[in-house]
Specification:
The protein is of the alpha/beta class. A hairpin with a 2-residue loop joins strand 9 and strand 10. Helix 1 packs parallel to helix 3. The protein starts with a strand and ends with a helix. It binds ligand PMT.
Length: 414
């Protein structure tokens, strides 16, 4: 395991608590490289962190003459970057992509697991700008710990205290453990809806936005995997990473072809896409005019009714489980489906686990507006023949991370 952590310290009174964090990590032989902002050095001397970590403290973009591009070297030097304490200012800068000192340029160049432990005055922490920044960062795959409640240095009482260093150390340890869990593994992920055309302007589809699938892709990359992300039409940007192959598709049949091709080398397939089960039997190459549609219509109870014939699409995950059984894919390929349900969520998901030949199914209640389609958060039950594991409500990235941890632990143990 790569046991190195970058620790960013910013200008909060709580900067002194980062000493305890360094001590906790070093005690477990975790190498700590501290990066301080200029404001942090007003509150704590770099010499303290140098003594505790045993490493020189990085302070300035140009302070290492031996390193031609200091922030890039730092960003690539560890799989986990913890910023504790992280002021409201730095939270907001990171959300906006501002990179105007060593710490923020390093964070922008960093591709591993970024963990922020906020510390700020209650008003600054609860300010709409800060809370929106926290949500935006979480949606991008940054772990933002919840600030503690209590008495603050300014005398206010409320949320804004730095979380306990033991909690931050636990999160860093967990991230380190998982940072290589999927190294050398090929993970294929489907995301978003499919669109089934009637004609060039009309289609059948569903409400999937791709957020869950894209969160899975980011989490798998952070855990060291090589990822193929096969996505239906969504408005999200694909993660940029040398280990990611992006395949954009429109219809279920296109998705099926792309998945079967990618699955040939896959170790895990995560099917988060909401694939349309049916498509129009006939697709017109030109826009159907009202008069053409009216030829298909009849008048019923005073309304014009058009009858459209739909035919069944291939069930992609069933195709995969059949190909695996036939020996066409890796025998130990792990197949993970998602079940989008509005009622009898768990029992319907269980039924799909068996009928589609899956190893895991993630039961997702899409009747709720706060989770499921389009929401920033999710809350799921992971079902496998070995048992059920709930994942509590959290950002889709956090749910993705926990799901991948669960799958890797379960499959490594068997
Ligand atoms: O994209 P978001 O807005 O973030 O929303 C996330 C989500 C709700 C779409 C996601 O979490 C989810 O639940 N995805 C599965 C949606 C779905 O199609 O469920 P299903 O119960 O109809 O299908 C069960 C499984 O079979 C799924 O893994 C699906 O990808 C797969 N399937 C379905 C039909 C089909 N023809 N081929 C398939 O492979």
């Amino acid at each position: 395991m790569d046991k190195r952590v970058l620790l960013g310290v910013t200008g909060s009174i709580a900067a002194y608590k980062a000493c305890e964090l360094v001590r906790l990590l070093v005690k477990e032989d975790i190498g700590v490289q501290v990066v301080m902002t200029a404001h942090a050095t007003e509150l704590m001397g770099p010499a303290t962190f140098r003594s505790l970590s045993g490493n020189p403290v990085a302070l300035d973009l140009f302070d290492d003459p031996g390193a031609p591009i200091h922030h890039i070297e730092l960003a690539q030097s560890a799989p986990v970057f913890v910023i504790a304490p992280c002021t409201a200012n730095v939270v907001n800068k990171l959300a906006a992509g501002v990179a105007d000192d060593l710490l923020t340029t390093t964070a922008l160049a960093f591709t591993g697991r970024l963990i922020l432990a906020p510390a700020a005055n209650t008003q600054m922490y609860l300010d709409v700008a800060t809370q929106e920044s926290i949500r935006a960062l979480q949606a991008r795959g940054v772990t933002v710990l919840t600030a503690d409640n209590g008495e603050l240095a300014c005398g206010d009482v409320g949320p804004g205290r730095l979380p306990d260093p033991r909690v931050i150390a636990d999160e860093a340890r967990r991230a380190l453990r998982s940072s290589e869990a999927l190294a050398g593994r090929h993970v294929v992920i489907t995301a978003g809806p499919t669109r089934e055309d009637f004609d060039p302007v009309r289609f059948v589809s569903n409400h999937s936005t791709g957020r869950m699938g894209y969160a899975l892709a980011r989490a798998a990359l952070q855990m060291g995997a090589t990822v193929t992300l096969i996505s239906g039409p969504v408005s999200l940007p694909a993660p940029v990473d040398a280990r990611l192959e992006f395949v954009g598709v429109t219809s279920a049949r296109e998705m099926s072809a792309a998945v079967l091709q990618a699955a040939a080398t896959a170790d895990i397939v995560l099917a988060a896409a909401a694939v349309a089960d049916f498509r129009p039997r006939i697709t017109s190459e030109v826009k159907l005019k009202k008069y053409a549609l009216s030829e298909l219509s009849e008048l019923r109870e005073g309304e014009t009714v058009i009858t459209v014939e739909l035919v069944q699409n291939p069930d992609i995950v069933t195709q995969l489980s059949e190909a695996r059984a036939a020996g066409a894919l890796k025998r130990d390929l792990v197949l993970v489906g998602f079940a989008a349900e509005t009622n009898d969520v768990d029992s319907n998901a269980r039924e799909k686990l068996a009928s589609k030949g899956l190893d895991f199914i993630v039961a997702n209640d899409v009747s709720r507006a706060d989770i499921g389609f389009g929401a920033a958060e999710n809350e799921v039950l992971v079902i496998s023949p070995e048992g059920d594991t709930p994942i509590a409500k959290a950002s889709k990235f956090e749910v993705a991370w926990q799901l991948l941890e669960l799958i890797t632990q379960a499959t490594n143990a068997s």
